């Protein structure tokens, strides 16, 4: 007697993984890249001659981050 190769019942089907196209991910990559550059500017360079906001407010808010990332500030 030959046994048939029938699939096991009660086994859930595994959904296929569809790849994300470059068209779908490019705007998000650009958005987060620009956001990262803005954050890097405020943490690393927002003081002195290149300051967009006058005063020491931004410097005080990002002071510990500057030290953590290795930027000199005093």
Automatic annotation (TrEMBL):
Keywords in alphabetical order: Membrane, Transmembrane, Transmembrane helix
InterPro entries (alphabetical): CbtB_put (IPR012667)
A Pfam short name: CbtB
Transmembrane intervals: 25-44
Domain of life of the source: Bacteria
Protein species of origin: Streptomyces syringium
Name of this chain's protein: Cobalt transporter subunit (CbtB)
């Amino acid at each position: 007697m030959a046994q048939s190769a029938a699939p096991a019942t009660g086994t859930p089907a595994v959904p296929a993984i569809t790849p994300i196209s470059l068209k779908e991910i490019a705007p998000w990559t650009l958005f987060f890249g620009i956001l990262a550059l803005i954050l890097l500017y405020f943490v690393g360079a927002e003081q002195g001659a290149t300051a967009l906001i006058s005063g020491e407010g931004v410097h005080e808010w990002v002071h510990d981050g500057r030290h953590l990332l290795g930027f000199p500030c005093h």
